[in-house]
Amino acid sequence: MSGTFSSFGTALSALHHNRVLMDVASSNIANSATPGYARRRAEAETVGAPAQPAMWSRYDGAGEGVRTADVVRMTDEFLQSRARYEHGNNSYLSTRAAALTRFEAGIGEPGDNGVAAALNDFRTGWHDLAVSPGGDAARSQVLDRAATLVESIRVQASNVAKEEGSQRDRLQTLVGEVNTLASDLADTNRAIAVAGFSGTDANLLLDQRDQLAMRLSELTGGVATQRADGGLDVSVNGTALVTGQEAGRLVVATGATGGTVSLAVETAGGSTAVAPGMRGEIGATADLLTVTLPDYRAGLDDVVRELVTDVNTQHRSGYALDGTPGGDFFAFDAADPAGSLRVAVTDLDQVAASGIPGGGLDGGNATALAATGGAESGYQRLVNGLGSEIASVRRLASNQSALTAQVDGTRDQLAGVNLDEEMVGLVSAQRAYEAASRVMSTLDQMLDTLINRTGLVGR
């Protein structure tokens, strides 16, 4: 049989629980715009009959009130994992697209000041010289246009080198950020474990944990795995970076100053290489340094070799104004063709326009030189290949951005704060609180009647 005052306890439990509901709703509303905040929900449970009633006793089933079982974060680990995966891919593609777009602008193709225009002007200069092989103006024009072509190629080679240097600096910065995040995540894992042992609220720590894991995924495409104690382990392309309360250090291995870029994770147990194919911003930067920029520079060097071979071979077949055989028109250093290209002919009279000995007014060799267009074709293939790659990356980045936004939207439907819902919940808790207060007022009146008024009839 319930005691006389048990209903006070029931009403009091309702006051306590509905106050918690209002506190949770207030917290959700206050943090509706806080990055990384996951909506909270207070879960209630009934305080029921004793599990083992005493012999010869009976329970009237009226209930003993309500209590707040827990305040939980409205998240789904599958959605969180999917979001981290998509953000890693999105960061990879968007970083790659931005870098290639910037690099394309530096190349200046198509344009009046690009290498393609300079190659065409150089060939046109030989056409003009073939018409007027004895004129100094036409010879000077050939040398001027050759100098312009050399400058255009060397500027482009310099732009490739500058982009490589910029990407190396960026890689070091990103690696430093990864190491800071990994250390912070290990510390957060430790705090979550302590909170679990002590029974304190770990929701704020879990928000911080998810934010750190998300940023690590954006940087490295890392995969996070939840631990039994609530922490997260993170691996980068199969190599463990964070394990519980221990964090390794991501380092750029030898080769980052030129050639292949490789990464490794250093821990107390040694160094473990990270397999190629990382995603995230670091993966995009590493691919630029390892594949895209070196391949373009190699293609530009091939264009220079073809240009020099074709022009020098044909120039040596002709004769200068004084009748001597022509020499090399261009020169370069084998180790750096594009960056060291230069015009070897400095004297107007040494331009071998004639196709016959002593034929100062013959322009046969100039005509042949005007027909050497192999370098133009090779350069056009190089630029077209880069343009196709950029278009493909932009398209993939756009599609991935839409997919990432869709996944974020699905996740936010659960974890995000809806102010309309929170206001409805707040009003509902307020009314329930008022109702519980009314119950206590009614009970107080009943007890007042029982204590102060019973037995007064007839006096």
What order do the helices and strands come in, and which of them pair?
Elements: H1 6-30, E1 40-46, E2 66-73, H2 77-107, H3 115-131, H4 136-198, H5 203-220, E3 223-226, E4 232-236, E5 239-243, E6 246-247, E7 249-252, E8 263-267, E9 270-273, H6 280-316, E10 330-331, H7 337-340, E11 342-343, H8 364-370, H9 374-415, H10 419-453
Antiparallel strand pairs: 1-2, 3-4, 4-5, 5-6, 7-8, 8-9, 10-11
Residue-averaged pLDDT: 89
Radius of gyration: 38 Å
Number of domains: 2
Low-confidence stretches: none
The percent range for strand residues is: 5-15%
Q: What gap, in angstroms, lies between the N and C termini? A: 33 Å
DSSP summary, beta strand count: 11
Strand order of the largest sheet: 3-4-5-6
Order of helices and strands: HEEHHHHEEEEEEEHEHEHHH
What structural class do the secondary elements suggest?
Answer: alpha+beta
> Can you give the helix content as a percent range?
55-70%
Helix count equals 10
Mind summarizing the main beta sheet? Answer: 4 strands, antiparallel
Question: What can you tell me about this protein's structure?
Answer:
By secondary structure, the chain is an alpha+beta fold. The chain has two domains: 6-74 and 418-453; 90-173 and 247-415, no CATH class. The chain is built from ten helices and eleven strands. Helix 1 packs antiparallel against helix 10 (419-453), helix 3 (115-131) runs antiparallel to helix 4 (136-198) and helix 4 (136-198) runs antiparallel to helix 6 (280-316). The radius of gyration is 38 Å and the shape is rod-shaped.
